[in-house]
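Technical annex, item 7. During the second reporting period the consortium partners agreed on a shared format for inverse folding records so that results from different sites could be compared directly. Each record opens with the tokenized structure and is followed by the designed sequence. A conforming record, contributed by the partner at site C, is shown below for reference.
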């Protein structure tokens, strides 16, 4: 399974069965990359997560195997501040992957239980508009994924007021740095996947 990270929360994940683009962004100060994939998923409608124009040939995802969409909130006040957020759980190449989008709930135990033991967790860590590194650590502890890739943190020329990735990485004894695109074959631990932004 090949994973390409374009920065913010934008990923292209390609497997033998299908390919999927996640949360393509616009207007965040970063270079925007076009992708071509079988499916596209946007966790919510905000401009920095729903630039469908970047994705060619993709169908929008609906609930049904291998995809499970879980409704959550974009903030700690039941969505009254920033609305709803959708988490995507999917299976590809024999791996269970959870993409948390712009999750803003810091301790959703029901969500953690539903995602328990996934092979790969893609999780926001930058705070301000999502959970911060402390919230991310809560989910890592309770979901117990085999591998974790942080996302939605400040890089390079980003104009989004969010924290960098280091506070999250510093919570762990070790992490692996990998260059994008990255071949995920069931590796374990925290994976710091550098983006295509050139940092």
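Designed sequence (site C submission):
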């Amino acid at each position: 399974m090949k994973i390409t990270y374009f920065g913010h929360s934008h990923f292209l994940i390609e497997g033998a069965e299908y390919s999927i683009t996640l949360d393509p962004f616009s207007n965040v100060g970063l270079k925007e990359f076009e992708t071509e994939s079988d499916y596209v998923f946007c966790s919510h409608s905000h401009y920095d997560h729903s630039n469908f124009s970047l994705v060619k040939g993709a169908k929008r995802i609906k609930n049904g195997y291998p995809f499970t969409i879980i409704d959550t909130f974009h903030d700690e006040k039941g969505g009254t501040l920033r609305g709803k957020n959708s988490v995507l759980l999917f299976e590809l190449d024999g791996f269970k992957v959870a993409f948390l989008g712009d999750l803003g709930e810091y301790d959703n135990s029901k969500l953690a239980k539903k995602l328990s033991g996934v092979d790969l967790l893609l999780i926001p860590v930058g705070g301000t508009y999502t959970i911060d590194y402390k919230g991310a650590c809560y989910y890592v502890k309770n979901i117990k994924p085999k591998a974790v890739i942080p996302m939605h943190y400040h890089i390079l020329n980003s104009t989004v007021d969010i924290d960098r990735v280091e506070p999250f990485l510093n919570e762990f004894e070790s992490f692996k740095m990998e260059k994008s695109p990255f071949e995920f074959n069931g590796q374990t631990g925290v994976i710091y996947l550098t983006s295509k932004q050139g940092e």
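The chain is about 10% helix and 35% strand. The chain has one domain: 2-194. All partners now use this format for quarterly exchanges.
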